[in-house]
Amino acid sequence: MAILKIIEAGAPVLKETAKPVPAITKHTKKLLDDMAETMYAAEGVGLAAPQVNKSLQLIVLDDGNGLIELINPEIITTSEEMEIGTEGCLSIPGYYGSVERYKKIKVKALNRRGKVVYYEPEGFLARIFQHEIDHLYGTLFIEKAENLRRVTE
User: Fold this and answer.
1) Which of 64, 68, 87, 149 is the most exposed place for a label (fewest CB within 10 A)?
2) Among the options 37, 81, 132, 146, which is catalytic?
3) Where do the domains of the chain lie, and which CATH numbers do they carry?
């Protein structure tokens, strides 16, 4: 596995719609492994392929309960209930903002074996799913955020 370079806001790939993964290959699985290693090394909770300069619909995430890998994910239903929470992004280091998201969603995706899987995350995990899926459509959290602020250490 390898730690990949996380690109930052301003890179064109972050504003594009990522391409669906046509077939799950050894290269796809290696990229998922490298993305997970990169996410953990950066102490993030999610990472989408465009953030490592790959225009592919791949996401890895972990809210502390174990790694989830998503290939070609799509949100198929949402709750009516919304909630506001603080978000940051590995591609926009040092910035945080309040973003309104659906409290609960249902997502359909493929796993690394090509099997269709469904997730029904709520709360913080639903927020991570939505944030990362936004990356696949060229949307950054700062476009949705209120109270955007820079945090310096």
Assistant:
1) 64
2) 132
3) 12-150 (3.90.45.10)
